[in-house]
Design goal:
Blueprint lengths: L1 H12 L5 H17 L10 H13 L15 H14 L7
Amino acid sequence: MSVLMFKFAERFVNGWISAQSFSDAYVQLWKIERDFDLLREDFPGLNECLSAIFCLADMYEPDEVSRADYELGDEGLLREVSNVLTSFDRSVFD
């Protein structure tokens, strides 16, 4: 399922999913995989990539007034998830 989470993050970066929807769903999917110990069955390096995206999604705060300095808004989440995806070596999927 982790490849699915990776593809879900790509859809977010490509504009198919809103930041709020992505953050809510991604956090829940990651916790399900964690609880069933599925994250250890990933391609090399994918666990770290997905965990980094989880941290970013967890730091998302849509309300600018309530947002702490370390939290991310829509644009910040998009930028940071894009950076994580760009740095991941996709050749492991081949």
